[in-house]
Design a protein that fits this description.
179 residues; mainly alpha; 6 helices; 83% helix
């Protein structure tokens, strides 16, 4: 039993590395996409593709390493670990970016966006209280150090990964009876 857990963890690390590389490539499109809209579109498509790629990797683990048999619990734990390891890998890139490269450019972009929208007088678009709330939220995020921001992103990646792992495990599970 202990050997199976160690093998699962090792394979989750391996497959999590693939997912992490995908997330890193996807992340590169985010800051660039603020200024080049097609790259933002690629980032969004990549984000939508994450659970499908997670399904593919979990199914691949089931078929290649477990001879096509996996329980819901095993699939959920594997997918959760895979997303956790991917989150750890992409966190290194997040830290490098926010510590050495960003210099507040993403938050400046969003602050300029809120200011422009509030001055545009578009009916229904940010009202004064809404614009003030958005400005306050941007100020709170800008007060975070790069490590605090990265830890926040890492915890979100782990939580969202554990939640995405639930439907993935449901679709990937396969017992000997259903073969």
């Amino acid at each position: 039993m202990k050997e199976n857990q160690n093998n699962m963890q090792a394979y989750a690390m391996q497959y999590g590395t693939f997912m992490g590389i995908f997330w890193i490539i996807k992340f590169i499109f985010f800051p660039l996409g603020l200024y080049i809209p097609i790259l933002e579109f690629i980032f969004v498509v990549g984000t939508i593709a994450v659970p499908f790629y997670g399904y593919y990797l979990t199914r691949s683990y089931r078929d290649k390493k477990l001879n096509g048999v996996i329980s819901f619990g095993q699939a959920w734990i594997f997918a959760t670990f895979m997303f956790m390891f991917a989150g750890l890998l992409v966190s290194v890139v997040h830290y490098i970016y926010f510590r050495f490269m960003d210099n507040g450019s993403i938050l400046s972009y969003y602050q300029n966006f809120v200011t422009t929208l509030s001055k545009a007088n578009i009916p229904g678009y940010p009202t004064k209280p809404m614009a003030d709330q958005l400005t306050q939220a941007i100020a709170i995020v800008s007060s975070l150090t790069p490590i605090q921001l990265v830890m926040q992103l890492l915890s979100q990646n782990v939580i969202y990964g554990a939640l995405m792992a639930l439907p993935i495990a449901l679709f990937v599970k396969k017992s000997k009876k259903t073969l």
